[in-house]
Amino acid sequence: MLVSLMIEGALGLNWPRWQNLVRAAEDFGFDGIYRSDHFMGRAGVREDALEAYTSLTWAADHTERIELGTLVSPVSFRDPRILAWQATAINDLAHGRLRIGIGTGWQVQEHDAFGFELGSMSERFDRMEDGLQTVLALTRSDEPVSNNSERYKLTDAQLLPRWPEKQSPDIIIGGNGPQRTMPLAAKYADEWNALKGGMQVFQDRSAQLTELLIAEGRDPKSVRRSQMCGIIFGKDQAALNADPEVDRFEEFLEKGEVVGTPNQVVEILQAKAEAGVEAVVLQWLEFDDIAGLELLASTVLPKVRQV
What we know:
The protein contains eleven helices and nine strands. It is of the alpha/beta class. It has one domain: Luciferase-like domain (TIM Barrel, Alpha-Beta Barrel).
């Protein structure tokens, strides 16, 4: 099982914190570090929100091993032509380690604040599919690209330079929606990232994905199946009992979150692996708790590497 970190970039993330977290992910043995992509976080709260692709550029230049990416970038404010350009450049700098999540956009407050149209759910998914097609065309074609898109017109367009061994970043599609999300994942994704939910939800959607991939003529094993999970981690039971959310632990566990001491976390991750989760992306909200990350890495990663 792969174990990566998810950093909510609009919840107070700044350069010193990001740099420390990236170094920790690289040095402690995590498989990757991912970023949310938002202008702002909690409603009514003014806090740091470090821009995603600038931060990933720094990470690409200061790491050698870990995967880097977004979960996810909304095409509602990320023009896919610019996104493909940025991603191609960062992937080249990272020597093929970039993975980009692409989504519809959902946070109303940031769209209102910065003047971007969010649209209806149907409009969002239509725009997302158009964006996926545009990004894939620009990052995976060896020749200049032209299209007939009304949203994202291309005429003999090509993006260079590219990392020669792995020219295009992998595409991640996140979510559990059976009507639009899962068919899009089957058609376009290199990785499906499930949202929080119990293992039965994950297994049901994973089975649906397998059927959809076969219908698309794709190998079901060609798409990585991952899950994003919140994590509350304590070195021992006393530390967990001191957490302000202690009364909600059972609720969190039922939703597929990871809560526990090192041994408990290992058991939870092993159960996820047995259910078909190939990679977990753990939402680490304690940006300044680097010691906690080191403890998590040293006590958990060696025991879940082979599952």
